[in-house]
Design a protein that fits this description.
The complex is a heterotrimer of chains A (about 280), B (about 300) and C (about 425). Chain A has 2 domains: about 1-60, no CATH class; about 70-280, MetI-like fold, CATH 1.10.3720.10. Helix content of chain A is about 75%, strand content about 0%. Chain A is built from 15 helices and no strands. Chain A has helices at about 1-5, 15-35, 40-45, 60-65, 70-100, 105-120, 125-135, 140-165, 170-175, 180-195, 195-210, 215-220, 230-240, 245-265, 265-279. The two termini of chain A are about 20 Å apart. With about 300 residues, chain B is mainly α. Chain B has 2 domains: about 10-55, no CATH class; about 80-310, MetI-like fold. Chain B contains 14 helices and no strands. Chain B has helices at about 10-25, 25-55, 70-75, 80-110, 115-125, 130-140, 150-155, 175-200, 200-210, 215-225, 230-240, 245-250, 265-275, 280-310. Chain C has 2 domains: about 35-145 and about 310-375, Periplasmic binding protein-like II (D-Maltodextrin-Binding Protein, domain 2, 3-Layer(aba) Sandwich); about 145-310 and about 375-424, 3-Layer(aba) Sandwich (D-Maltodextrin-Binding Protein, domain 2). Chain C has helices at about 1-20, 20-25, 45-55, 75-80, 95-100, 110-115, 120, 125-130, 155-160, 170-180, 195-220, 225-240, 245-250, 255-265, 275-280, 325-335, 335-345, 365-375, 380-385, 385-400, 405-424, and strands at about 35-40, 60-65, 85-90, 140-155, 270-275, 290-295, 305-315, 375-380. Mean pLDDT of chain C is about 85; it is low at about 1-30. Chains A and B meet through helix 1, helix 2, helix 5, helix 6 and helix 7 of A and helix 2, helix 4, helix 5, helix 6 and helix 7 of B.
């Protein structure tokens, strides 16, 4: 964005105001939820002020005791990290195979993968559930992880192929002349060059696994296996009328996401941007 | 016995497989893990979905009872399913208008702003780091008829006539949920559009500035046309991710009141796991898949064609 | 096919499982020696679990609290997975336990009943019900208790307006009108999660159609579009049209939210189960201001009765390898001591058992038990078959939000019933 910035120094006030309004819309629900988490139920019902008149911590105690948010957080991290690592580990070689090796019938196979990108998960959710059940992996984080990796394969391979395709062949040729094996070329030369692509896929996989709901609600049945989205929805069902505790639970559910985003912001943004422009 | 003139078929197969392996050892090894996952978790379930869609299985019975195309003829004459398909269309349009449109607007405005763009970008992306289900829980509270931020704000502003039961009113429920879903999405598209804008040749802008073009002209004549390819990618992504509406709907209305906010995903879920009509749910899911795949194919063909002339 | 799938799963999962922290895999690995019991965590559950463990020091047991819902497919999944608990507490009813039994997912308990004399311990109508549901004549559950649904009202709101619990439908409408004129929302309802809406609608249908017709609908081929049931749908619509029920708001609120509003003194009446006053008392709400009455019958010469339903039942997983210990748990559940501990520790279900001398029920439970003694109607949410339940809930939500006419609403349920009957 640097080049643009050099062009202008003055910002149109109208633009500034519009932007402020939209970002406020992004932010206000968060602030409202967090503020309400510190109110007691009478104030939530009775008071008109956004900030609590009296700051209560009871809600957080109730949410923490009832909800096992620590466990949900840990499960979500396990699911998201494992899905990300495995997805990248299997999609990168496959993308390379399609982009840089001469495989017979490769294009037919690639179309098979492309087909999977547009296949909506609804169409396979029923048998997928029974299949994971037959594997004995219902109510087990690995059932969810493997299913997420599997359903994410088409997009991952497609994305990695786009990245590898744009890498110059000259380096590989030079290495081959120097006597490097095919494996050596892949691991030592191509993989490091494809780092932005790996990052992009990692971000896409991480976000979608972190936020997954459709499969999780079927597969994760116990409190010890629930992830944050499932745990929060379950908590809400069981604590419908304790509004304060629900707001506290939402706060506990969103804080880890926001922290991870703030810490990894640069990677998130550049990963998504790189992925989308290649996709 | 005469000696065979040709080697047995099986032998020939093995030899050619062996040759295939010899010639393609590297790509085969590189591909197999992903293929294994893809086959086990997508293609096999897809095959089984087709099989189940021809049965009246209830999720419990030990044997499959085949009923031919009965499930398909049922859903394609079932106004509940057809309406849920139509809601998916509305849902997608809302996703494009709020998510993609909002993201594009944000990206353009942010690229025009001199200072504070980092803050704007960071904050506008916040909603996207949340799960749609978490977003559903948050917006469920925002829409609460008596304590929700929306109705209390309207009342405080003296507009209590505009307060509604956002999730209980069947004419509003789908749109209320769609707005929540759009709120989660626009940050994502903003990032992608920003990347697209960043890759536009700065000389174009330089030339426009020399010509004394206004900011609006710059956006209209340079930024938007240059985003054609980005837009194709974004619309495809939007099409796929709009299909993921399940989380928000499930957390906010579970498809209700009645069936007023039921998307196909919710229809499939309720039909399979609440009423036990597994075969029918499979048929509904596959029907949706056919529509989606056909549509994305046509759409990409059309964009390619349009792209050639711009 | 199955074995190949298992093989693939095994090759994929084994190295992964081996590499992960024990907390991840522990949930799926059952210890064969320990009796695994899962179910709803009632107020008295910790006590009865503890006493069972003291009495059976050689049988280690593990109780996993949590509701496995039939409607979400969770209970079927748990039973089919082969990893499920040995004994589970599930929602009762022909559409639930009946389906599990038909599918062979749970064990028959006829011999258990014979051996322990349990047939004599339970209220005859309860035994009759669990034998009547398909597969007919068989018993595969031990009923934990009953739920009874009736109107609860704010006594002060009635007294201030000179009202008495109504004894006819016309009086009921007058009560609503008077409360509304006094600025009180006559009926509070939270129907988004369906249950409460089903209770209210069930009471109205019972009032309009009576028990005999509903028995035919549930157990044989009764017609849900019968004029008497249609009249029930019209009654619900009337209450919404007059704004005695705020239909849109009811569709946006969860049952528990409506209960909380009622507890704060809002509204005049609400349809709840007998445990409602107990829960309020536990939350520190003064329940002396809450009275109860039964929806007046519109059937000539029929008594007004509440609706009721088997609440939860214990069933044994067909794949258990711990049958002896599982039966020991059921023997504990049917014992006098278990019942006594339950009511000493906040139990709120109406007993399905004949209550032995020396056990006192909480007042609201006793009140409900007394009302059931003279007969009770069905809570259709429990008794309609699986597909019927969903259509029944949809009919209720569509009626209160004006999306369906009474005719359309009952026709929708009838269609689902016919489909369910055809499937059997």
């Amino acid at each position: 964005m640097r080049p643009l910035r050099q062009l202008r120094h003055e910002t149109n006030p109208l633009i500034f105001v519009t932007l402020t309004v939209i970002t406020a819309i992004s932010l206000i629900p968060f602030l409202w939820v967090i503020a309400n988490a510190f109110k007691d139920n009478t104030e939530i019902f009775g008071s008109a002020s956004l900030l609590p008149e009296e700051w209560h911590l009871r809600n957080f105690g109730a949410a923490w005791m009832d909800g096992q948010f620590g466990v949900y957080f840990l499960n979500t991290v396990i699911v998201a990290v494992a899905t990300t690592v495995i997805s990248v580990a299997i999609a990168a070689p496959a993308g390379y195979a399609f982009a840089k090796t001469q495989l017979r019938h490769a294009s037919a196979l690639f179309y098979l993968y492309l087909f999977g990108i547009t296949l909506p998960i609804e169409s396979i959710i029923v048998p997928l559930f029974y299949q994971i059940k037959d594997m004995g992996l219902v109510n087990n984080l690995w059932g969810l992880i493997l299913a997420l990796v599997g359903t994410g394969v088409p997009f991952g391979v497609y994305l990695m192929r786009s990245f590898f395709r744009d890498l110059p062949d000259a380096l590989a040729e030079a290495a081959r002349i120097d006597g490097a094996t095919e494996w050596g070329i892949f691991f030592r030369i191509m993989m490091p060059l494809a780092t932005p692509g790996l990052l992009a896929l990692a971000v896409f996989s991480f976000l979608s696994a972190w936020n997954e709901f459709f499969l999780s609600i079927l597969l994760l049945l116990n409190n010890d296996t629930r992830t944050i989205p499932i745990g929060l929805v379950q908590f809400r069902q069981q604590n419908m009328s304790d509004y304060g505790a629900l707001f506290a639970a939402i706060t506990l559910a969103i804080i880890p996401s926001l922290l991870i985003y703030i810490v990894l912001q640069r990677q998130f943004i550049s990963g998504l941007a790189a992925g989308a422009t290649k996709g | 016995m005469d000696a065979p003139l040709h080697p047995p078929v099986a032998f020939r197969r093995t030899r050619s497989l062996g040759r295939l392996w010899q010639a393609n050892r590297v790509p085969i090894v590189l591909l197999s893990p992903s293929l294994l996952f893809y086959v086990v978790f997508v293609l096999m379930p897809l095959g089984r979905a087709f099989q189940l869609s021809l049965t009246d299985w209830d999720g419990i019975a030990a044997n499959l009872n085949y009923v031919r195309a009965e499930n398909y003829s049922h859903i394609w004459t079932d106004s509940r399913f057809l309406t849920s398909l139509w809601r998916n269309v509305i849902w997608w349009v809302m996703h494009v208008v709020l998510g993609v449109g909002g993201g594009l607007l944000l990206a353009i405005l942010i690229s025009e702003v001199g200072r504070g763009r980092f803050v704007f970008r960071t904050v506008a992306f916040f909603p996207h780091v949340l799960s749609l289900a978490v977003v559903g829980v948050i917006w469920g509270q925002l829409y609460h008829p008596s304590i929700g931020l929306i109705n209390t704000t309207l009342e405080r502003a003296g507009l209590s006539g505009m307060a509604r039961v956002w999730l209980g009113d069947p004419s509003l429920a789908l749109y209320s949920v769609g707005i929540a879903s759009g709120w989660q999405a626009y940050g994502f598209y903003m990032v992608i559009f920003l990347a697209g804008i960043q890759s536009i040749d700065p000389q174009l802008y330089e030339a426009a500035r020399v010509d004394g073009a206004s900011a609006w002209r710059r956006i209209w004549d340079i930024t938007i046309p240059s985003l054609h390819n980005t837009m194709t990618v974004v619309l495809t992504l939007a099409f796929i991710s709009a299909m993921k509406g399940f989380g928000t709907v499930w957390a906010m209305t579970q498809g209700g009141p009645g069936y007023a906010s039921e998307l196909v995903a919710v229809y499939v879920w309720r039909t399979a796991f609440q009423t036990g009509a597994i075969g029918r749910a499979a048929a509904a899911g596959l029907s949706l898949a056919l529509i989606v795949i056909a549509f994305s194919f046509i759409f990409n063909r059309w964009r390619d064609k349009v792209g050639q002339y711009t | 096919m199955v074995s190949r799938r298992k093989f693939v799963a095994g090759t994929l999962a084994t190295p992964l499982l081996a590499s992960v922290a024990p907390s991840v895999s522990s949930a799926a690995q059952g210890d064969q020696e320990t009796l695994r019991v899962a179910g709803i965590d009632y107020d008295y559950t910790p006590t009865v679990v503890e006493v069972f463990q003291e009495n059976n020091p050689d049988n280690p047991m593990d109780f996993a609290p949590g509701t496995l819902s039939f409607e979400d497919g969770q209970i079927q999944a748990a039973l089919q997975s082969g990893e499920g608990p040995d004994v589970v507490n599930v929602n009762s009813g022909p559409g639930r336990v009946g389906e599990l039994a038909k599918g062979g997912l749970i064990l028959r308990l006829d011999s258990f009943y014979e051996r322990t004399g349990a047939y004599e311990l339970y209220i005859p109508s309860v035994i009759e019900q669990i034998q009547n549901q398909p597969p007919e004549g068989e018993v595969s559950e031990v009923v934990e208790g009953l739920d009874v649904f009736q109107f609860y009202y704010h006594i002060d709101a009635f007294e201030e307006n000179g009202l008495e619990p109504p004894e006819t439908w016309e009086e009921f409408l007058e009560v609503c009108q008077t409360l509304q004129d006094a600025g009180v929302q006559p009926i509070l309802l939270g129907a988004r999660d369906n249950f409460q809406g089903g209770w209210l609608f069930g009471n109205i249908v019972q009032s309009s159609a009576g028990r005999d017709l509903m028995t035919q609908v549930i157990y044989s081929d009764g017609d849900f579009t019968h004029p008497d049931i249609l009249r029930g749908a019209e009654m619900l619509k009337h209450l919404v049209d007059e704004n005695y029920i705020n239909g849109l708001e009811a569709a946006a609120l969860e049952g528990e939210q409506a209960q909380a509003a009622f507890a704060q003194g809002q509204g005049g009446m609400t349809v709840q189960q007998q445990s409602f006053p107990i829960n309020l008392a536990n939350d520190g709400v003064d329940t002396s201001n809450i009275g109860s009455f039964v929806m007046p019958s519109r059937m000539e010469g029929e008594p007004s009765v509440p609706t009721a339903g088997l609440a939860h039942s214990w069933v044994i997983n067909a794949s258990t390898e711990n049958l002896e210990a599982a039966e020991a748990w059921l023997e504990w559940v049917i014992s006098d001591e278990y019942l006594r501990l339950a009511y000493e520790n906040g139990g709120g279900l109406v007993p399905a058992r004949i209550v032995p001398d020396g056990i006192t029920l909480p007042p609201s439970v006793q009140d409900a038990a007394d009302k059931v003694e003279s007969g009770a109607g069905y809570n259709p949410s429990v008794y309609l078959p699986g597909r019927g339940t969903q259509a029944w809930y949809a009919a209720m939500q569509n009626l209160i939000t004006g999306q369906a006419s009474p005719e359309e609403a009952v026709a929708g349920v009838q269609e689902a019933l016919e489909e369910a009957r055809a499937a059997n």
